[in-house]
Amino acid sequence: xxxxxxxxxxxxxxxxxxxxxxxxxxxxxxxxxxxxxxxxxxxxxxxxxxxxxxxxxxxxxxxxxxxxxxxxxxxxxxxxxxxxxxxxxxxxxxxxxxxxxxxxxxxxxxxxxxxxxxxxxxxxxxxxxxxxxxxxxxxxxxxxxxxxxxxxxxxxxxxxxxxxxxxxxxx
Length: 171
Hints:
Layout: E1 10-13, H1 33-40, E2 44-47, H2 49-52, E3 62-65, H3 69-75, E4 79-82, H4 89-106, E5 110-113, E6 124-126, E7 134-136, H5 140-147, E8 151-154, H6 158-170
Parallel strand pairs: 1-2, 1-5, 5-8
Antiparallel strand pairs: 3-4, 6-7
Helix pairs in contact: 3-5, 4-5
């Protein structure tokens, strides 16, 4: 019998799996067959960095204020603030660290995160004005995971993530 390595685990934003953890106490369940297949295989490790960082559900919406996205937050040159002006940077950074620890604990080398989130956005985030304007960028968790060498894909990139995983497992 040939050696078969352990199945690759995948870190996933909990809201994509139907958990009602978003700021508005909602979810954004993803019914994409790739994600559903991974769930059926037992590959998924769910995390909500914002809740893990100590934020309540529901909570005021938050955005990154200042240029540079999540990397700038981690460097201390940008902040995460709520629509009310409260600084919640420390909760976002703490939650990103919890997500990284979960990925490491499970050996996850791939993450699927909800795009446009100040935590999980990996291709887009909001511009910090609460006017609905989206800009290219990453949230705090996406930045932490990528810096640690974990491949991060948005929820809109599941086919590309599946191809990446297939290549990883062939190697």
